[in-house]
């Protein structure tokens, strides 16, 4: 295939190598190089291309000449890929999408930026795929289904018509959704899970047929509760949160009471444990702290 565009791939892992091979074989993109965050840069070259630091990639591969593709998997429930995609957009890049020529795609299907659609997927009429979505091989996405931003669908899923997959969700291999099923954001479906009913609680893990809750949140499953996912910072040795509460906690713990700091900074709610509860911050937004 004639190469008319230039591409920089963000990520040097297995997905980065896969993206290099697929874009090189079956797209109009010529891969010019790779970028990775400086702390993870272990080599100067990969697949015959230079590897540069992500923090400075726009000075070497300017957005006016190159497009970007973020080749990162579902680490931290898709949040690492989401962050790097958003940073690429801030740098001014158009993010390329790859659609395998061996996928069936009806003529009114919509696909966003930074998507990677492997071989043997079926995308029926009026399907909408958001930004930064990965569809591994062999999924059927039926008529008018919407897959929202930053999702990852493993191989072999069967999704019936008029479904809606909430943002950042992870769907394991061989899952099945009936017609008109909606999944809340940050939903995790284990391999082989089946549901014909909507799953409306955000941030839960479901397994089995019919799908049932495991009792563990998606944030625990992907090890993101106690880390920087909550936007925590250290001040005087005390952990503090600076972002709005996750919809999961809003849904499950609405109306709980806790103790808040007297900090003049409306974001300065102190954490004393990982027993998260909900309260109203001084700014009027929902916040989290531990009591």
Task: Describe the overall structure.
- The chain is 14% helix and 31% strand.
- The chain starts with a strand and ends with a strand.
- The protein is an alpha/beta fold.
- It is globular and about 50 Å long.
- The strands form six sheets. An eight-stranded mixed β-sheet has the order 6-9-12-15-18-21-23-24. A six-stranded parallel β-sheet has the order 7-10-13-16-19-22, with no helix packed on it. Strands 3-4-2-1-5 form a five-stranded mixed β-sheet.
- Mean pLDDT is 83; it is low at 226-291.
What best-fitting shape do the alpha-carbon axes yield? Answer: globular
Structural class per helix/strand content? alpha/beta
Distance linking N and C termini: 60 Å
**Mean pLDDT reading:** 83
From the structure provided, what is the oligomeric state, counting identical versus distinct chains? single chain
Radius of gyration: 21 Å
User: How would a textbook summarize the main sheet?
Assistant: 8 strands, mixed
Unreliable residue stretches? 226-291
Layout of secondary structure:
Elements: E1 5-10, H1 14-26, E2 29-36, E3 45-46, E4 49-53, H2 57-60, E5 67-70, H3 79-90, E6 98-99, E7 104-105, E8 110-111, E9 116-117, E10 122-123, E11 128-129, E12 134-135, E13 140-141, E14 146-147, E15 152-153, E16 158-159, E17 164-165, E18 170-171, E19 176-177, E20 182-183, E21 188-189, E22 194-195, E23 204-207, E24 212-217, H4 218-221, E25 233-235, E26 238-241, H5 247-253, E27 269-271, E28 276-280, E29 286-290
Parallel strand pairs: 1-2, 1-5, 2-4, 6-9, 7-10, 8-11, 9-12, 10-13, 11-14, 12-15, 13-16, 14-17, 15-18, 16-19, 17-20, 18-21, 19-22, 21-23
Antiparallel strand pairs: 3-4, 23-24, 25-26, 26-27, 28-29
